[in-house]
Amino acid sequence: MGAIWNSDQCPPTGPRADRAPYGRYACASPRLARRILLRGGLLAGFALAAGPLAASTITTPERGLEAGWVSIPAAAGPLRAYRARPTGAVKLATVLVVQEIFGVHAHIQDVCRRLARLGYLAIAPSLFDRQGDVSRLPDIPSILPVVARVPDAQVMADLDATAAWAAASGEGDPARLGITGFCWGGRITWLYAAHNPRLRAGVAWYGRLVGTTSELQPTEVIALADRLRAPVLGLYGGQDDGIPLESVERMRRALEAARSPSRIEVFPDAPHGFHADYRPTYRAREAAAGWKRMRAWFRAHGVA
């Protein structure tokens, strides 16, 4: 089964549908889609705190892919990661996929499969595991203390270990390394672009740019505008209640002042989480447009 979309948002199907951004699509009314999801057991794999699953949830099939969990050696101990790639393919352009606060749940895994269908090796390391299993927590207030205990330094090291594993395995090409992340992972994408000199490009989806810092998470993204080692495309929503447009404009000015090749694009009518197709915040038009811009950004900067 392909993706489930609201009936008024169905994209084309047919023999060329696999070339579309999210793979092959199947359309259904919201009520029918919900029944299909329940019958197929697809509610499993989402964090409890993510809330009720929307009928717009996209499911990309594993057909033609090698997809599943792998163990990555890292300085702090083995690291779980979800990996997807075209079956049998090696030396692929590699995209690190960085989770939301809900962890590497079914949506993030699906993003990996979508990228794999485009010919990438996509890997999403489970970056909260050492601090706790957020998939079992009932709500966001329960998750936030876990997230607060995750040091930025640990995350950078784990992403480095993931990139090293991709190269050492032969599956990935270290010369074509990219990163993309969502919400919490959007902030991490900016940080990693300032951390790894071998990164070619990043795409940050609605990641926090300014705000509270701590001993474990000491850096505001805006402070890195002149230290980015790879160009980042920031994708933001104009109706984001958690990331004010004022902070987005501040980041734009900081990038311009630094003469950075990075840039920010704002979708005026989109809320926070507009790419998260399993949530009510999902906006199909803006999500598809952002995905298209991400693909173009990676191609333009050698992650292809």
Task: Based on the model shown, name its key terms.
Rossmann fold, two-stranded parallel sheet, disordered N terminus, alpha/beta, 20% strand, eight-stranded mixed beta sheet, 304 residues
Characterization of this structure:
There is one protein chain. The chain has 304 residues and is an alpha/beta fold. The protein has a single domain, classed as Alpha/Beta hydrolase fold, catalytic domain (Rossmann fold, 3-Layer(aba) Sandwich), CATH 3.40.50. Helix content is 30%, strand content 20%. It has seven helices and ten strands. The protein has helices at 30-39, 106-117, 140-148, 152-168, 184-195, 245-257, 284-300; strands at residues 3-5, 25-27, 65-72, 79-86, 92-98, 121-125, 172-182, 201-205, 232-237, 263-267. The chain has an eight-stranded mixed sheet, sandwiched between helices. The longest helix is centred in the middle third of the chain and has 17 residues, at 152-168. Residues 1-43 have low confidence and may be disordered.
Order of strands across the biggest sheet? 3-4-6-5-7-8-9-10
User: Strand-and-helix sequence, N→C?
Assistant: EEHEEEHEHHEHEEHEH
CATH class wording = Alpha Beta
Secondary structural class: alpha/beta
Count of the domains: 1
What value does the Rg take, in angstroms? 18 Å
Tell me how many strands there are. Answer: 10
Mean pLDDT: 88
Dominant shape = globular
Gap from first CA to last CA: 27 Å
What's the CATH architecture?
Answer: 3-Layer(aba) Sandwich
* Contiguous runs where pLDDT drops below 50 for at least 5 residues: 1-43
The main β sheet shows up as: 8 strands, mixed
Q: What percent of residues are in strands?
A: 15-25%
Helix fraction bin = 25-40%
